[in-house]
Amino acid sequence: MPNERKTDIVILGLLAHEPLTGYGIKKLIDGAISFFWKGSYGSIYPALSAMEKDGLITSSEMPQGDRKRIVYSITESGRKALADWLKIPAAKNELKYETLIKLFFSGSADKDTITANIDSFARETAAKLALLKQYQETLGKIMDNSDHLCYYLTVSFGIETYEAHLRWCESAKKLLEQQNDRR
Amino acid sequence: MPNERKTDIVILGLLAHEPLTGYGIKKLIDGAISFFWKGSYGSIYPALSAMEKDGLITSSEMPQGDRKRIVYSITESGRKALADWLKIPAAKNELKYETLIKLFFSGSADKDTITANIDSFARETAAKLALLKQYQETLGKIMDNSDHLCYYLTVSFGIETYEAHLRWCESAKKLLEQQNDRR
DNA sequence: TGGCTCATGTAATCTGTTACATGATTCT
DNA sequence: AGAATCATGTAACAGATTACATGAGCCA
């Protein structure tokens, strides 16, 4: 039975491409993946231990000089678990935006506070968008295999979503102005 | 110091509008709020107890016949905590879409699996979108105060985001077709 | 030599879900 | 009478974060 823990799936997905250390996994998660998934050492290392026990991955110590170094590889059983999970269309998709909580309950807040919150959100979104566009550019040049196509589609998702967010920021601020003038 | 727990903030925000029971809070969270925030009884009731101890809310037993019923109201201290939190522009905005994890690691999956996943995502998104559009229609008619304006803006955010998702679904499927033909 | 990166790991804590237990009221 | 809804609450578990502890290798 494939593990439900998403950390496990992400690790499996990364190891399906190449063997990695826990540290290396963390670095990759902090890259293009980070816009839809986060992971800390406190979740990665325990997951690696558990998955090795379950036979989904294997480890081999490959020290660099005197520095401890454990490289993990995916097993056949691991590949199967990953493939099985990929085939299940059911997916939990969660959007948890504190900005929306703030906005929803800002009925008694003054207009400047609301606008400041929207502006702050817009800045953060623009920064993330810029990063994704960089990734997209790089990927667009090397879209030679199905791996890269999938990366490209994921990044495109982020770009279209963030662009929609930014458009909303503009229209929201306009509406706020209008309502303000009307009083 | 304002509590960082978002469950607390959501409860405070709801109670700022009207006194409610734990059950009533759960019902409201399951409504228009649910697209950006979820809550279970297992998180709501303990939060209510903790917040009462902290003086952010007060309770009064108002049984209905023989049925136990505890109605919570926000205190001045609670209103201040909420207002303080609303003034901080910093916000954690998390997009956690399993669909994107699946897609990102679908390099070795066959095209039908990927398309099925996208279709499933599109159906779910369309369903959520339809609900939000209903809310928007209702809200559009009664946009008489700043509370309703904030609700409207929040719902609009969801609508624009989900519409962007659906557009992406279409373009993603087209790209997949093209790449498939090219082989 | 000092700071960054590579590298592993754990303990305490937080936050929340799921599942259950319990029972009254209201609607059909 | 039976189903749905109203209503409160807890215990076990899950999943993750934060902060810490530790230390080697590499570059300027």
Structure explained in plain terms:
Two copies of one chain form a homodimer. In chain A, α1 crosses α4, α2 crosses α3 and α6 runs antiparallel to α7. Chain A has helices at 6-17, 22-29, 41-53, 76-87, 98-104, 111-141, 146-182, and strands at residues 57-61, 70-74, 93-97. In chain A, 66% of the residues lie in helices and 8% in strands. The first copy, chain A, is mainly alpha-helical. Chains A and B meet through α1, α4, β3, α5 and α6 of A and α1, α4, β3, α5 and α6 of B. The first copy, chain A, binds a DNA duplex (28 and 28 nucleotides) through residues 5-7, 21-24, 27, 38-43, 45-46, 49, 64-70.
Largest interface, with counts of residues having CB < 8 Å to the other chain, equals:
A-B, 70 and 70 residues
Described by its quaternary structure, the protein is: homodimer
Average of pLDDT of chain A? 94
* Helix/strand structural class of chain A: mainly alpha
What topology, given as strand order, has the largest sheet of chain A?
Answer: 1-2
Instruction: State the share of residues found in helices of chain A, binned by percent.
Output: 55-70%
| Percent range for β-strand residues of chain A | 5-15%
Shape of chain A: elongated
The number of distinct helices of chain A, counting runs of at least 4 residues, comes to: 7
Cα-based radius of gyration of chain A, to the nearest Å: 21 Å
* Counted beta strands of chain A: 3
Distance between the termini of chain A: 61 Å
The main sheet of chain A comes to: 2 strands, antiparallel
- The helix/strand order of chain A is HHHEEHEHHH
Uncertain segments of chain A are none
